[in-house]
Amino acid sequence: MSMPDKLQMIVDQFAAAPRELRVQALLEYSRRVPPLPEELAADRDRLEQVHECQTPFFLATEIDEEGAVHLFFDCPPEAPTVRGFAGILREGLEGEPWKDVVAVPPDFYSGMGLQEVVSALRLRGMGAILGRLKRQIRETTEAEEAPAE
Q1: Distance separating alpha carbons of residues 8 and 44, to the nearest angstrom
Q2: Domains of the chain and any CATH numbers
Q3: Which of 40, 52, 89, 92 makes an SS bond possible with 7, Cβ 3.0 to 4.6 Å?
């Protein structure tokens, strides 16, 4: 399985970085998560909670007319680890074709060396975030491709 170039570049940067810089990079990505757009902040029912995360974490995905994915995350700033992972996903997958996002390996982050700086429980939550967003994309695209009755 291949990954979008942007995400692969992030994985490679983390893999090449010393352990202490991986923590700093994760914190930097946590600051890159934009706030929810007004329409999602006002209609939180459109967000799905990822219960596997220790932190209250919510996400939504959208696919535009060109088939590009748009990601929206809501995670408290006091959870920089999981928020950093959200920042990585947003940076690496935002605007990518939905088929490329769905093809991202479920454990893509294992090559980043995060297991040296993040607990196994947090890593499980990170995997659940990716799984949720991929499921939302598959559900959206299957609904759009279903023949009308």
Answers
A1: 31
A2: 5-140 (3.90.1010.10)
A3: 92
Residues 109, 31 contacting (CB under 8 angstroms): no
CA pair distance 14, 12, nearest whole angstrom: 5
Highest mean pLDDT (candidates 1-5, 11-15, 76-80, 144-148): 11-15
d(CA 10, CA 91): 9
Mean pLDDT of 8-19: 94
The total number of residues written for the chain in this structure: 149
Q: How far is CA 8 from CA 1, 80, 93, in A?
A: 12, 22, 10
Q: Return the beta strands (E) in 10-100 as ranges.
A: 48-49, 58-63, 69-74
Compute CA distances 94 → 6, 34, 63, 100, 117, whole Å.
9, 12, 10, 11, 25
pTM: predicted TM-score of the whole model, two decimal places? 0.91
Mean pLDDT of 55-83: 94
